[in-house]
Design brief:
The chain is α/β, with parallel strands linked by helices. The protein contains 4 helices and 4 strands; from the N terminus they run E-H-E-H-E-H-H-E. Helix 2 links the parallel strand 2 and strand 3. Helix 1 packs parallel to helix 2.
Length: 169
């Protein structure tokens, strides 16, 4: 099973989001429910089947923002920013991964996570110029560059790996 649900607010010129101090509880709970509670519920439901089978793989998709905070300067030209919920959810996904790996290991269920960096996908030129300066390789990922790590984590090639957060950025 792959947990990949999230509301990823894409900052754009003219599209405003609430700053941290104005984030409503309604918005906080909605986004946490989609991204983190959703992963919890899906994992809970599928693990019952996997526990009976004594086999299974859960792969959680987090983000490089699970280990770093968003650099809000990347969005300053837009008058926008990355909301707090996205980073908090992605930190929580890593914690969920480690907990489930420890808890479900006795059932031979492996739980791992990937934390990908940003993928180039028609972002504004000024954003790309700013972010490429922060990335050691000088570019964002291409759309297909995460395919092999996902395949690896979902096959027997990683049969002795659980509870890991693979950071690819």
């Amino acid at each position: 099973m792959v947990n990949n649900a999230a509301i990823d607010f894409k900052p754009k010129k003219g599209l405003k989001n609430s700053p941290f101090e104005k984030t409503t509880l309604e918005n906080w709970f909605y986004e946490i429910n989609v991204g983190l509670t959703g992963a919890f519920i899906c994992s809970k439901l599928i693990c019952k089947y996997m526990m009976k089978k004594k086999s299974g793989i859960i792969l959680n998709i987090s983000s490089d923002l699970s280990i770093i905070a968003p650099d809000q300067r990347l969005y300053s030209h837009l008058g926008s920013f990355k909301p707090i919920t996205y980073s908090v959810i992605k930190h929580g996904i890593v914690g969920l991964t480690k907990y489930l790996a420890s808890y479900l290991g006795k059932y031979k269920i492996r739980v791992n996570c990937i934390s990908p960096g940003g993928i180039e996908n028609n972002q504004e030129k000024i954003f790309l110029k700013k972010i490429k300066k922060l990335i050691p390789l000088g570019r964002m990922a291409k759309k297909n560059e995460y395919k092999e790590i996902i395949q690896f984590l979902c096959t027997d090639s990683s049969s002795y790996m659980t509870g890991q957060n693979i950071i690819m950025d």
